[in-house]
Amino acid sequence: MDPHKTKLPFHYLKPGEMFLGENPTLVTTLLGSCVSITMYSQRFRVGAICHGLLPSCRGKGRCDCTESFRYVDCSIRQMMGGFHQLGIVREEIEVKVFGGSDMFSSDEKTGISIAVGTQNVEMALKVIEREGLRLLVSDVGGSRGRKIFFYTHTGEVLLKRLNETDGVAFD
């Protein structure tokens, strides 16, 4: 599918947001160190995507924060909750993970030893495994940003890796 020739409704997903599409929609987002997780149910033809900025809200396994989609761990659990409300069981959820570029070097002053992009990817993979979800595809890491096009009714994801010369600001 060519995202520029679609007649589908279009939604731009901002950092810290989630979109669950029961109706066919093209969702796009730009990723740098942030991570997007897509979930799709073939039986229901329902898809969801989030744009997590940070790995964890530190809610000790339960997210009680008001900005849950800012955090990768909370986003995955919230998306699963949305699917559960629709009658979709975890065994039929197809998961894909994108982003997590290490665009910013670690800073000795702040004590950050692992870049945020790496932390986001590690958290996403850990929660996906812990929740028993089926990871189909991932395109993570590196030093380049990504533009994602997600079709909620098919689960298809188109990805464009961005060059440093594209002049696009990330996350």
For the biggest β-sheet, the strand order reads 2-5-4-6-7
CATH topology: 60s Ribosomal Protein L30, Chain: A
What would you call the shape?
globular
Number of domains: 1
CATH architecture: 2-Layer Sandwich
**Radius of gyration over alpha carbons?**
15 Å
Report the portion of residues in β strands. Answer: 25-35%
Number of DSSP helical runs: 2
Give the uncertain stretches in residue-range form: 166-171
Instruction: State the end-to-end CA separation.
Output: 26 Å
Order of helices and strands: EEEEEHEHEEE
Main beta-sheet strand count, sense and barrel state: 5 strands, mixed
Mind telling me the CATH class? Alpha Beta
Total strand segments: 9
Counting helices, strands and paired strands, the structural category is: alpha+beta
Structural overview:
- By secondary structure, the chain is α+β, with helices and mostly antiparallel strands.
- It has one domain: 60s Ribosomal Protein L30, Chain: A (2-Layer Sandwich), CATH 3.30.1330.200.
- The protein has helices at residues 72-85, 116-130, and strands at 10-12, 18-21, 26-31, 35-41, 46-52, 93-99, 134-140, 146-151, 157-161.
- The chain has a 5-stranded mixed sheet with strand order 2-5-4-6-7, with helices on one face. Strands 1-3-8-9 form a 4-stranded mixed sheet, with no helix packed on it.
- Helix 1 packs parallel to helix 2 (116-130).
- Mean pLDDT is 88; it is low at 166-171.
